[in-house]
């Protein structure tokens, strides 16, 4: 019985020591269920907590009031693989903030106040597999190069935002993409949507609910229709529609041709004028020679 009691006492001492260590390294008001997890969800935080352990791998900060992430926040947390910032007050992510997260696999920025996802937001987080950006009611712009370098990204969530259009390049540059959620956005079925529609039809297997789960509004009367009711012929007129780039090229070409024509006319006129003066001078010399 005595050896058993000794072993039990030793185990209790070791357990209490571990718990004391966890409690010592855990930020105030947060929980640390294991040595590499910090859970600060629903704590009413208005800024990131202090004294987060440097070896944290899972950082849970959902359901708070955090308005921003310092651009150098993740520099020290090189082991971080899971970051949950869902349901906060983030309005933007400074470029470069996430570029140092070389091991980040999961990132949740859903249910915030993001307005745009510009180029360089995620750097080249090549380990990122799942990215949640849904339920940002003011998110109306995603750069065509917003996800450049995310070569391992498999799941992208952009549902229920304020997107009316999206460049195809933002999606086609994701070679590992398996699932993309785009439903619940105020898509507009105009010529700017034509290329995205073609991509969605070709990649409908990547949409959880297929194209049937997506709607867009008709530019004429604003009526919402399911993408399943449309076809490539619905955008047939867009093939003959000139883009802004096309118009600029035409205008520039026209100006260039006009300038060349004016310069050519001036050169020819000058040549003719010089020839006429030379001819008159030659005739005058001949008449003087005859006299």
From TrEMBL:
Q: Which UniProt keywords apply?
A: Cell membrane, Disulfide bond, Ion channel, Ion transport, Leucine-rich repeat, Membrane, Repeat, Signal, Transmembrane, Transmembrane helix, Transport
The answer to whether UniProt assigns keyword Repeat to this entry is yes
User: Which GO CC terms are listed, alphabetically?
Assistant: voltage-gated potassium channel complex
What topology in the membrane does the UniProt record assign?
Single-pass membrane protein
Annotated ranges, domain LRRCT: 185-239
Taking every annotated instance into account, which residue ranges of this chain make up the domain LRRNT? Answer: 25-58
InterPro entries (UniProt xref): Cys-rich_flank_reg_C (IPR000483), KCNMA1_auxiliary (IPR051432), Leu-rich_rpt (IPR001611), Leu-rich_rpt_typical-subtyp (IPR003591), LRR_dom_sf (IPR032675), LRRNT (IPR000372)
Signal peptide segment: 1-23
**Record-annotated membrane-spanning stretches:** 247-269
What are the subcellular locations of this protein?
Cell membrane
Q: Which GO terms describe its molecular function?
A: potassium channel activator activity; transmembrane transporter binding; voltage-gated potassium channel activity
Q: How does it assemble?
A: Interacts with KCNMA1.
Q: What is this protein called?
A: Leucine-rich repeat-containing protein 38
Q: Which organism is it from?
A: Xyrichtys novacula (Pearly razorfish)
């Amino acid at each position: 019985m005595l050896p058993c009691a000794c072993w039990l006492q030793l185990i209790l001492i070791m357990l209490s020591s571990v718990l004391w260590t966890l409690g010592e390294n855990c930020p105030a008001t947060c929980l640390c269920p294991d040595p590499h997890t910090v859970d600060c969800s629903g704590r009413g935080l208005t800024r990131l907590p202090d004294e987060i352990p440097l070896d944290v791998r899972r950082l849970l900060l959902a359901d708070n009031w955090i308005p921003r992430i310092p651009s150098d926040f993740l520099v020290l947390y090189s082991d971080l693989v899971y970051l949950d910032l869902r349901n906060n007050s983030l309005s933007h992510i400074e470029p470069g903030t996430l570029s140092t997260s070389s091991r980040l696999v999961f990132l949740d920025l859903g249910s915030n106040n993001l307005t745009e996802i510009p180029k360089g937001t995620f750097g080249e987080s090549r380990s990122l597999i799942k990215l949640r950006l849904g339920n940002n009611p003011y998110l109306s712009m995603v750069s065509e190069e917003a996800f450049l370098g995310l070569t391992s990204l498999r799941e992208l969530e952009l549902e229920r935002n304020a997107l009316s259009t999206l460049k195809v390049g933002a999606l086609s540059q994701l070679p590992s993409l398996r699932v993309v959620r785009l439903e619940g956005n105020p898509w507009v079925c105009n010529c700017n949507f034509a290329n995205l529609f073609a991509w969605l039809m070709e990649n409908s297997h990547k949409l959880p609910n297929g194209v049937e789960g997506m709607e867009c509004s008709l530019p004429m009367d604003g009526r919402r229709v399911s993408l399943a009711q449309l076809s490539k012929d619905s955008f047939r007129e867009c093939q003959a529609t000139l883009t802004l780039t096309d118009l600029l090229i035409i205008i520039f070409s026209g100006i260039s041709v006009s300038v060349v024509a004016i310069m050519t006319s001036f050169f020819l006129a000058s040549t003719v004028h010089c020839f006429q003066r030379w001819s008159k001078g030659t005739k005058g010399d001949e008449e003087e020679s005859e006299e």
